[in-house]
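Lecture 7 notes: from sequence to structure.

We start with a single chain of 277 residues. Read the sequence below before looking at the structure.
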Amino acid sequence: MKTSEELKNVVKEKYTEIANQTKQENEESCCGVGGCSTVDYAVFAEDYSKLGGYNEDADLGLGCGIPTEFAQIKEGDTVLDLGSGAGNDCFVARELVGLSGKVIGVDMTDVMIEKARENAEKLNFNNVEFRKGDIENLPIGGNRIDVVISNCVLNLVPDKEKAFAETYRVLKPGGHFSVSDVVLKGDLPENLKNDAEMYAGCVSGAIQLDEYMNIIKETGFTEIATQKEKVVVLPQEILAKYLNEAEIAAYHSGNFGIYSVTVYGQKPSCDPGAGCC
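Now the structure, written as tokens:
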């Protein structure tokens, strides 16, 4: 298995390629980028086109949910988007926070940051900003954010405990997150687990749903809930590339599954040990 830094480099390379393609190109290629080298991102993507604030140039079809639908964003909020890509979720969030609010997007890929900033400039948005940074070490001060959102990104982070700890740190007391992500139920076959290409495609980077929820709980979040869950159906050509006939049969029989979930968690209004309880 590759190291954390090697996996991050795989993700950077893949998402740099994706940033230089249109949404249509990402969806029409049989498996995303580079022929059949990784999973088809359209398998996960949701339709944003009817949402307020939607901007077609910012939509690369990379999400696995619509976290803003569940994030309870209010006018005047400061919202942070983890792995903001070309700005799709940020611009939808901006519609909800209004002129009195603020949206910050963080991404580790240079081309994505550049693309998002260009989109914001074209739209003349002065309350949306994009910062280059690592989700495991966010370029945000503590207790600054009302709502954290993320869309099919945390499964790409090698150290998920650190990612949720950083989310907790930057949230204001009483703030909350709503993130869409890819998780597993049952044991994923080894070929899928070990292929770095599939890691960038959001599959082998995913962990068991129970483990995912436990990380959130252990971080200190409360009011934890699954807001939406759906099965992700992988195309036959993906299955045939990575699985033998018996494993494909096990997949279709439901012995293991890949799911898109949207999960909510809240930072307590008073941090334990802060002297305010």
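The CA atoms of residues 196 and 210 lie 23 Å apart. Keep this in mind for problem set 3.
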